[in-house]
């Protein structure tokens, strides 16, 4: 019975967020995603946005909306995406003919490696998964996927997070680097 009682959760909802927090989170995420897309558009390819991987949307929630979370810190943002990208590409190259197995191996191994390296960043799981289930354009990148889009996109989002999150007097980012 105790097992099922744990599934009931707490009786209280999380506290509300001040409108200023909402606005700073909106501004940071808008600028972060826009800049990643602009870098891709200007430097790489004007027809597709391969650099805008879905996991960056989740990273934006963390690095602009939950800036004190250990999962949102620079080592987690950069390390989580890049390690997971490497794992995802490797899984695809080794067993991409069995995408269901490659997907499961990529995500679970990425989680384990992020835990072991203290770089746990939940969007990293999606970065690993995208390397397996992504388009032909993603697959053609091979191990370049680690640098572009995963690494470069994460660095661009980090720079925006450093600039925007420290504009408000009551916000500070990061909590730690390493």
Describe the structure.
By secondary structure, the chain is mainly α. The chain has one domain (20-165). Helices cover 67% and strands 0% of the residues. The protein contains eight helices and no strands. The protein has helices at 2-5, 19-44, 55-65, 74-95, 99-116, 123-133, 136-141, 144-165. Helix 2 packs antiparallel against helix 8 (144-165) and helix 3 (55-65) runs antiparallel to helix 6. It is globular, with a radius of gyration of 17 Å. The model has no long low-confidence stretch (mean pLDDT 93).
Largest sheet: number of strands, sense, barrel closure: none
Rg, Å, rounded: 17 Å
Number of domains: 1
Report the average pLDDT across residues.
93
Write down the secondary-structure element order.
Answer: HHHHHHHH
Q: How widely separated are the two ends?
A: 42 Å
Beta-strand percent range: under 5%
Topology:
Elements: H1 2-5, H2 19-44, H3 55-65, H4 74-95, H5 99-116, H6 123-133, H7 136-141, H8 144-165
Quick summary of this structure?
By secondary structure, this protein is mostly helical.
Key terms for this structure?
globular, 8 helices, 0% strand, mainly alpha, 178 residues
């Amino acid at each position: 019975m105790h097992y099922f009682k744990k599934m009931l959760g707490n009786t209280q909802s999380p506290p509300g967020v001040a409108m200023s927090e909402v606005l700073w989170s909106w501004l940071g995420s808008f600028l972060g995603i826009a800049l990643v897309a602009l870098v891709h558009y200007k430097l790489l390819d004007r027809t597709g946005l391969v650099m805008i991987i879905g996991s960056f949307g989740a990273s934006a929630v963390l690095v602009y909306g939950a800036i004190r979370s250990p999962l949102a810190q620079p080592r987690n943002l950069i390390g989580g995406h890049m390690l997971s990208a490497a794992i995802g590409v490797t899984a695809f190259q080794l067993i991409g003919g069995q995408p269901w197995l490659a997907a499961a191996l990529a995500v679970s191994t990425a989680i384990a490696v992020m835990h072991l390296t203290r770089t746990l960043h939940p969007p990293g799981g999606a970065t690993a998964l995208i390397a397996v289930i992504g388009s032909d354009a993603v697959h053609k990148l091979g191990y370049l996927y680690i640098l572009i889009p995963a690494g470069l996109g994460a660095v661009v989002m980090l720079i925006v997070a450093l600039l925007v999150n420290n504009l408000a007097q009551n916000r500070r980012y990061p909590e730690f680097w390493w």
